[in-house]
Design goal:
The chain has helices at about 10-20, 25-45, 45-60, 65-85, 85-100, 110-120, 130-140, 145-160, 175-195. The protein has about 200 residues and is mainly alpha-helical.
């Protein structure tokens, strides 16, 4: 373990929880996430604990155990503030926004936007398209469809921007005319549904 890294055993257990979830074993995923968290607490290494807290948050969220996920979220944010770790605090706020988005809570848009601001202020750009898509869902659930489409466009553009070294991810790009006609068609359908 290095001063700024995470304990390798705990990290492997944490990632195994995600692998178990993806393979269709939610109970094993929850068990591995809890084991990783227990071991992270035992070694008393703040960086490992903050990293590891994300996995029970995610796995519990995926399993619909929002209360358990929120308990870990509170712990992550408090520890991040205590240790002066803005990246981990932003991570906690974004995870909270994700849960609020899934539960269609009223403060989802506000929380996700606050998390994105914290994330950027910590100097991080990784996962930015994912955050924009999460914000798009929150906007759509709030009936703010134009804002939702703006977030989707912004996230899509991030995938197609050139990166250092010339590498570029590509999405299937639709012409602007096609996107705008699709938006207005979607808007009309939703308006008809909501008026019935």
């Amino acid at each position: 373990m290095t001063r700024f890294g995470q304990d390798l055993r705990v990290t492997c257990l944490a990632f195994r929880s995600m692998a178990s979830w993806l393979l269709g074993y939610p109970e094993a995923a929850l068990n591995d996430a809890d084991c990783a968290l227990m071991e992270a607490r035992q070694i008393e290494h703040a960086a490992t604990l903050m990293f590891t807290l994300n996995f029970p948050i995610l796995v519990n969220t995926y399993c619909g155990n929002y209360h358990a996920a929120n308990e870990r979220l509170k712990e992550l944010v408090v520890l991040a503030e205590e240790k002066g770790a803005p990246f981990r605090k932003a991570e906690g706020v974004l995870r909270r926004g994700y849960i609020l988005t899934l539960t269609r809570a009223a403060k989802a848009v506000e929380t996700v936007m606050a998390g994105i601001d914290l994330w950027r202020s910590a100097g991080s750009t990784i996962f930015a398209p994912e955050h924009e898509f999460m914000l798009a869902i929150a906007h759509a659930d709030s009936g703010q469809f134009d804002d939702a489409w703006r977030c989707i466009d912004k996230a899509s553009r991030r995938f197609t921007q050139p990166r250092k070294g010339g590498a570029r991810l590509r999405l299937i790009a639709l012409p602007a005319k096609s996107r705008s006609s699709r938006r207005s068609e979607t808007w009309r359908k939703r308006k008809r549904i909501s008026s019935t």
